[in-house]
Task: structure prediction
Amino acid sequence: MKRIGTRGIFMLNNKDIQTFVKHLAFSDDHILEEFTLTLEGRELTHEDARKFIAFIRAERSSNRT
Result:
């Protein structure tokens, strides 16, 4: 992961994304132990992070059909 600028904006490389996607098979708690999810430099609350994970899972599921 590469930091860009001074506002804490990070650019994810393809490997970071692949690692996150592989972890989607695990529980939310496991994912949140491995990753810190942020938006505009602020860490997501536990509830918002769970919603984000659920959204990504749903999108992946709907794109497979």
